[in-house]
Amino acid sequence: MEIRHSIFRRGKKSSKTAKPYQRSWTLRFTFTDQHGATKRKTYQFATRNDAVDARQRLESDLKKTHGQSAVGDKMTFRDLAEYSKRTFYRPAEIVDGRKVAGIKSYKQTYSSIDSLVGYFGKRKLASLTRSDLDGYKSWRLKQGDRRGAKGQLKPSERNPVRLSTVNRDLAIFKHMVKFAHAEGWISRDITLGSKAIDADAETARTRTLTASEEGRLLASCDGDREIIYKRKGKTICANVEGFNRHLKALILLGLDSGLRRGEILKLDWQDIDFDRGVVRVLGMHTKTQKTRFTTLSERTRKELVSLPNFGAEGKVFPFNDFKRSWRTALKVAEIDGLTFHDLRRTFVTRLQADGLSIGIAAELAGHARLETTQKHYTSTDNVEMILDAAKRINAANDARVNNWPDTIE
Known about the structure:
Layout: E1 3-9, E2 25-32, E3 38-45, H1 48-64, H2 69-74, H3 77-86, E4 93-95, E5 98-101, H4 106-120, H5 131-143, H6 163-183, H7 211-219, E6 225-231, E7 234-240, H8 245-256, H9 261-265, E8 272-273, E9 278-281, E10 292-295, H10 298-305, H11 323-333, H12 341-353, H13 358-365, H14 370-376, H15 383-402
Antiparallel strand pairs: 1-2, 2-3, 4-5, 6-7, 8-9, 9-10
Helix pairs in contact: 3-4, 4-6, 5-6, 7-11, 8-10, 8-12, 12-13, 13-14
């Protein structure tokens, strides 16, 4: 790539009344881009020596990026964000059950991108530095939870934001910057060497369902019940018609099969093998895009058979959400701090407590990496698991003691 340069002074030399330019020296590069078009890129400097000193570095950037850094010099982070949403972060395109373009969780990704735009905004891509990642991290932690109506509150009045949320934002930022670097819009990858993403500092969620909570939760789905709650300062007592069979089946599929919320809601009746006791999860409905099979417990089988739409075609669950029913069940069962995803964590934790290898547990849960199972789905907050571990250690110690020689020679 041939690049020509020239350095010249701006302004009218003969005019005594003309105000002097603050940055009166121009460094201009002329080159031919990859499409054969002639391009020019200019930079302004206060002195000629400044222009001379910067020439080699700026010319090197143009050569490294094949002239595309001239585009990046004009592009703001907001421009990159909009481009990312239109291209590689667009909603997933599914062909023959496989994702061929875009992403599935695009709404969550868009939320992170919007947060990034809120900080970087009109900043030019070429002006971003490695320290900006740390700057964003500090700013985002101070902002707190910005979702929904909470975003209208002052940062000091919002709920704190998790470090994992900030790490996810920065991971998206890193991907976008690497893409811009690969396209030649910036001459260097500013994320290299940055330690702003600190996954080890994240506090992994360890909440699991105890045996007593399980009994109360399942019982909350059976029979009529009375609930008391407050609305606009008034105490309201309401009778809720019970036997929520669909919710009970949902809970059991999470607890005994380890399915994610979205995987359960997309189940078809043909995906359940009642004879062999197996549930099939299609790859197009999983995070890993890989079809897997998992367990169908006897109590889950009985609950599914009792559903009013059993034997019909299509979806097992004729709705797209069950947040209200889930919240009501937790309130009736008097359970705090439990999410539906915690049932999946309980499933994996119990498998390991019962002696199943972590590899098999990961396969049933559909994890691509064992590290995911170890970090997020193995809970030592489960007292039964700790007691079982202690029992196994004591038994092993007793066996070793029994094998000791009676005397020491």
